[in-house]
Specification:
The chain is α+β, with helices and mostly antiparallel strands. The protein has helices at residues 14-23, 43-46, 67-79, 88-118, 126-149, 160-168, 181-191, 194-209, 212-221, and strands spanning 4-7, 28-31, 56-59, 62-65. It contains nine helices and four strands, in the order βαβαββααααααα. Helix 1 runs antiparallel to helix 6 (160-168). The longest helix has 31 residues, at 88-118. It binds glutathione. The site of glutathione has 12 residues, from loops.
Length: 224
């Protein structure tokens, strides 16, 4: 059995953990458990993540939840000074971009994707979709300006900062991003990395196989 177990169907934020594990070339076991009462909210999994949410990992007995805490932990453990920044300041910048992504754009991109792509056409709410676009517009300008100046968020190489932000906004690749051309090129470039592509293949398969009733539940449970 692999020392690292990643829990969560790839349609969820487990995608982020899968991407970083692939990027690091780790040997891991993926347990594609579902949200809710058939999966994350059963007693067995609540004992690991009492929030009842996905993803979480168990790494050689060490349990961790929160998708970006997982990516930061794995990158630091396996690639300090490379995928994980090597200086105090660049580490702080990786945290800055990661917290920024969660606080500023995570929810907006999710709401948009449900009401633009994932829910059955007749159930999409145009007002929610438009509101989500307004919420992400200003932070997207910030990111667009940052990656207009340099190809990476930090220094001169791809780091976990790029991975975290690109993973959080990955579903925005289906948006009309003409107002943020640098952001779009930056995002597409990272989603084409082999490690991202194999995680995306799982995510796309899970999306395709998700019944409409489950997508409705996702919107309901997460108040999206
Ligand atoms: N901030 C958390 C959010 C986790 C989260 O909301 N996960 C969703 C799936 S992407 C979930 O489990 N929703 C189902 C539920 O809350 O029951 C993270 O980044 O890991």
């Amino acid at each position: 059995m692999s020392a690292l177990r990643i829990y969560g169907i790839a349609r969820t934020r487990a995608f982020r953990a899968l991407w970083v594990a692939n990027e690091l070339g780790l040997d891991y076991e993926h347990l594609p458990i579902e949200i809710g009462g058939e999966g994350a909210r059963t007693a067995e999994f609540l004992a690991i993540n009492p929030n009842g949410r996905l993803p979480f990992i168990v790494d050689d007995g060490f349990a961790l939840y929160e998708s970006l805490a997982i990516t930061l932990y794995l990158a630091k453990k396996h690639s300090a000074g490379k995928l994980y920044p090597g200086t105090l300041e660049s580490e702080a910048k990786a945290w800055q971009w990661s917290f920024w992504a969660i606080a500023e754009v995570d929810r907006g991109v999710n709401i948009w994707s449900l009401h633009a792509v994932r829910l059955p056409l007749a159930e999409r709410d145009a007002a929610l979709r438009e509101e989500a676009l307004k919420v992400v517009a200003t932070p997207f300008k910030v990111l667009d300006a940052a990656v207009a100046k340099q190809p990476y968020l930090l220094g001169d190489a791809f780091t976990v900062a790029d991975l975290n932000v690109a993973a959080v906004i990955s579903r925005a690749v289906d948006m009309d991003l003409t107002a943020s051309p640098h952001l779009k090129a930056w995002l597409v470039r990272w989603l084409e990395r082999p490690a991202a592509r194999s995680a995306l293949a799982l995510k796309d398969k899970a999306d395709r196989e998700t019944p409409a009733e489950m997508t409705r539940r996702i919107a309901r449970i997460n108040r999206l």
